[in-house]
Amino acid sequence: MCSWIWVGESDLHSSRTFGTLGRCVRGKSPGSHKHHGFWACSLLIPATKQRCPCGQHRVPFTGLAGAVGDEERMAKKDSKNIVKARAAVTKPTYALPEAVGLLKQVKYAKFDETVDLTMRLGVDTRHADQMVRGTVVLPHGLGKTKIVAVIASGDRQKEATAAGADFVGGEEMVEKIQKENWTAFDALIATPDMMKVVGRLGKVLGPKGLMPNPKTGTVTLDVAAAVKEIKAGKVEFRADKTSLVHVPVGKLSFDPQKLVDNATTVIGAIVRSKPSAAKGKYIKSVTLSSTMGPGVPLDSAVADAAGKH
User: Structurally, what CATH architecture does the domain formed by 148-232 represent?
Assistant: First the structure.
């Protein structure tokens, strides 16, 4: 094989490139690519993001492969365990109890894996009126105790401490988070009167999903109830840019029925959170998986049944 890379139809010098990254036949020159509608440039190396020396490529192509000859180095080989586990998923869809049983059956990791539920929704999250977001308390918890921090003042701090909050403070905690990027907690609760100073923490807490929000119940005057709910297994769900919702529903060591109950509760909450602006099919697919295990597709009847609970 030679080092020429063809990157797309039409001309590389155009503002749009599309097609598939590949190699040309050994010994062929750039001009010979014209007969099949592709142009080539051996100096365009997407893997290193180098600009072509000719200076005329306005939109460098960034394909899945890098420079020619890098395919083997860049390809990641799946382990025998995961290949065997994926091979066990033989049906197009499974009932929820079956899926839980299958994940337990193919388990090979030496640690207690987290079981996750992933739902693909028929919404366009670019529109505010189609955003899906909320919270739900799992009946059997997550198998771990969350670390909760509370920013409040006066008697609210005492209430939070009595409810079991791990960290309680006021403006001094805000300064610590802002100056030290301190985020040694899983959830942050704030009272409405403290949000004027907590608002400065958006750059630190926002990317980590820790910013208090009234919609998720983490901006409230009843800090004691909020702390107890989170400690009891309250989880947040939110559709991402690709309309997917990822929610943990417990540990693989849980009793099968507890995992079924938790998953059913989450599915039901998401079904009931359907935006009025959403059109067409709302639940497109539901998948259950574990940290190291395969994704097991669930039957569409699971969502229908959960929505009636």
Answer: 3-Layer(aba) Sandwich (3.40)
Mention every residue, 6+ apart, whose C-beta is less than 8 A from residue 191.
151, 152, 153, 156, 219, 220, 221, 223
Q: Is 137 helix (H, G, I), strand (E, B) or coil?
A: strand
- The residues of the chain that CATH labels 3.30.190.20 are 84-141+234-307
- pLDDT number for residue 161: 94
The phi-psi region of residue 143 (left if phi > 0; otherwise alpha if psi is between -120 and 50; otherwise beta) is left
Predicted TM-score (pTM) of the model is 0.65
Cα separation, 200 vs 175, whole angstroms: 10
Strands 114-121 and 283-290: antiparallel
Residue 219 gets which letter from DSSP? B
Q: CATH number of 84-141+234-307: 3.90.1150.10, 3.40.50.2000, 3.30.190.20, 3.40.190.10?
A: 3.30.190.20
pLDDT in tens, 124-182: 989 989 999 888 989 998 888 889 999 999 899 999 999 999 999 999 999 999 999 99
pLDDT at position 47 over 50: no
pLDDT for 4 equals 39
Q: How far is CA 277 from CA 20, 186, 236, 271, 303, in A?
A: 37, 32, 22, 14, 20
Question: Which amino acid, residue 146?
Answer: K
The partner residues of 118 in beta bridges, in order of sequence, read 246, 287
Structure tokens at 221: 């005057």
Contact 236, 135 (CB under 8 A): yes
